[in-house]
Amino acid sequence: MRDTAAETPTGDDFRKQRFRFDLFLVLTWLASVATVIALVWIVWSILQAAFPAMAATGFSFFTNAVWNPNRNIYGVFPFLNGTAGSSGFALLLALPLGVAIAIFLSEDFLPSAIRQVIRFVVELLAAIPSVVYGLWGIAVIIPMVQSWGGFLSQKFGFLPTFAPPATGNSMLTASLVLALMVLPTITAISRTALVAVPKTLREGSYAVGATRWETIFKVLLPTAAPGIVAATILAFGRAMGETMAVAMLIGNSPRLTWSLLSPAGTLAGLLANQFGEASGMQVSALMYAALTLVLLTLLVNIAGELVLRHTQKTIAGIR
Amino acid sequence: MSIAIDSAPNSSIKAGSGWDRFRLARNTFWTVLCVGCSFLTLVPLFSIVYLVVVNGLPLLSLNIFAQLPPAPGLEGGGFGNAVQGTVVMVGIGILFAAPLGILSAIYICEYNRRSSLAGAVRFIAKLLTGVPSIICGVFAFAVVVLSTGHFSAIAGGVALAVLALPTILLTTEQAILGVPNSLREASYGMGATRFQTIFRVILPEALPAIMTGLMLAVARAAGETAPVLFTARFSQYWIQSFNDETASLAVLIYNFSTLPYDYQIKLAWTASLVLVVLVTMTNITAQLVFSKRRR
Amino acid sequence: MKINSFRIALSLVAASAAAYSASAQTKLNGAGATFPAPLYQRWIAEFTKADPKIQINYQGVGSGTGITNFTQGIVNFAGSDAAMTDEQIAKVKQGVVLIPATAGSIVLAYNLPGVESLKLSREAYSGIFVGKITKWNDPIIAKANEGVKLPDTAITVCERSDGSGTTFVFTKHLSAISPDFKTQVGEGTTVTWPTGVAGKGNDGVTALIKQTPGAVGYVEYGYAKNNKLTFAQLENKSGAFVTATAASGAATLNSTQFPSEILRAWPSDPDAKDAYPISTFTWLLLYKKYDNKEVLDALKKFVTYGLTDGQKFADDLGYIPLPKEVAAKSEAALKSIE
Lengths: 319, 295, 338
What we know:
Strand content of chain C: 15-25%
Shape of chain C: elongated
CATH architecture of one domain in chain B: Orthogonal Bundle
CATH topology of one domain in chain B: MetI-like fold
CATH class of one domain in chain B: Mainly Alpha
CATH superfamily of one domain in chain B: MetI-like
Structural class of chain C: alpha/beta
Number of strands of chain C: 12
CATH architecture of the largest domain in chain C: 3-Layer(aba) Sandwich
Distance between the termini of chain B: 16 Å
Number of strands of chain B: 0
Distance between the termini of chain C: 51 Å
Shape of chain B: globular
Largest sheet of chain C: 9 strands, mixed
Largest interface: A-B, 103 and 105 residues
Structural class of chain B: mainly alpha
Radius of gyration of chain C: 22 Å
Oligomer: heterotrimer
Helix content of chain C: 40-55%
Radius of gyration of chain B: 24 Å
Number of helices of chain C: 14
């Protein structure tokens, strides 16, 4: 970056700017290192606390379907299933809905005033504390799921997803509320990504005669894909780590079930429920469960990266 | 934007082939679906807001902010100290997490995008998005509370900072990546240094998006119970020092909503209402202030 | 941002005003069981009204966390529904004094529209919770309820998902009366129930019971009373069917024998004719030695208040007042702290 001696002004101004430039680089570098150290420290603490349980159970921790602290048997398979199921289903609902709203907010279907109102209203959802989502779920969603679930399990009970027993507190209830909780994250970040797509791309697409939606599907969404994937990862993270609301709605059953309509349990809920009273090996097992969540997040990230790489191939060079 | 082809003023398209009419119909279908979905989400939202307002409004008054929580079985009082505590602890949390997150994001986007440090930052930040909030509390407990020997608002702030950091970092990264390269090239082309480009061109351009991410983090931090419960516990008194137990709205709601006494349960709803209003006001103010720079 | 700064400014002014008088404050901090938390907080409010130089905070986080914090030395006192085991006591270097502070009953609340009163024999309720009895019109239940029309609905057992002292006491009692339960489930703050749905906290179980016809679950008496849940009369050891009241709870507590050195005992299966079978004490945990004289003085004053005047709030809030002999023993234990 050094200019030749003839071109480098020797004025104090420029020297000062150079100095600031280096200082800022150092500052941001330090921030990055500090971030890595802090976050690695957290993972390390979890690992340390989990080690006794890891040594005692090994990989059977993931496959064992029994969790009985009294008898020192620790297996999180039902909770893994519950976490993956509730978060997966929640994202299945929230992703299309969130992206649809983001598209709506970034295009001009309706006047700007209405769009601002909807945007405000979606961000209001983000401000609601998890406990309130839980309380609302108990008041509104549980009765709904109890009646619809009963009907579904009677008619379609032969399918494992709708098998009885159908209770109000179930994976479905938790998924519905979780979807609502992660919606603002997906919408806000996807909207940012869509708005950031250069105007030239839109105009170019319209110029060759594409309709609005053809433009959205073939140009805007692939270009905004990195942002949308980042939004999804954050949303997944929030859904998998959500404790309070899920613990109030999912039934907290340690028994393995494949049915959306039966009570289930999640890893985060397990932690929240049992940490207060746990001691000794149980604490270590709970930390092992936390580690499992981190590993699950890793899997989600890898999946996200793969999706991204696929879309990036098609739009390489546009940016 | 008005050159978008939704309706068809151009008669040649209308009278065109069946394929074009199909494309137009498909276009309308998607528009209807999209607008429909957007309004659909208003339904549960209004349901929640209605619940919070109906349950929280009865006890809402200015007195709430000037008084301390009532003991179980008694009535009256408020939760002014909890509002104080939430503001303080979220403030401390953002004070730690925002500079760290934003500066790190600048480094990994603008300086050494492909370095191993950048890769490590991205990897570990994404990994920790899934960490349940209770772990943030447990970590801050082990690191701050056990070493200082007492609960404190600072420990609560640290727990919230840990919770907010991945979100702030990842959204800021997206915000900075969203700045068109043409602006960067123009800036360098005019002879600006990297620092000048970042500070005067990129950051202002990315600021609204950074604010969005920051507000998402603030909203989450203000509403989470476990991190503050483990580190700052609760206090029945006004804040006297940042080294004491501190009340917070989240723990107040958690405590009171699980009691079998009606007045406390009603107060919990009022606290929820206050929390939602507080966070939303912060959100709106921040976005208004920082979007003025947008053309 | 302006609004937040204003609020912060306001709070700082209030805080500095409060801090002005804070110089002579003695601050006490406690944590532990959530069951007695409302009563302790009422004591705190009433006690500090008379003595504003003392500030006390008690937060319900669970007996286990309370004991851990107590062992770590970051709280001045703790609360526990499960007292402390000898191994736990050995880990506390300052020594531990267990002080029974109050007591409560656990009731079996149920949701059967049309069934106003229900009698559950020992066989019935232990059978329900071990999963053997699955329908309400089972003959074992019907035997004790002549003349009551029991519906043909399935029984939904409601239990606690979170670790809890309530679960500990309830499972201790069930293990004492039913060998089946003891082998299949056992006792503990967290157990793996063979059947049913789980809710978080007493309030979670209460909500479950309210929403599920055919449900039965175990909750603390205060929650059942305040939410107007119907609860069953239980058969005690001497064969009588008893309802949970202050009197029947007191009968249980009066029959408890404490060993001489340590005030720790569980009336898991009381003999007395009018005793309610599931009642228990809850303890305050204090150190044997305190370094700080002010803290010790304040703590002694506070606990003495709780054991004497404070007991008058117990019944209103859903607790059982301590029997006089037990209160006297607690005060004696308190005096032994230096």
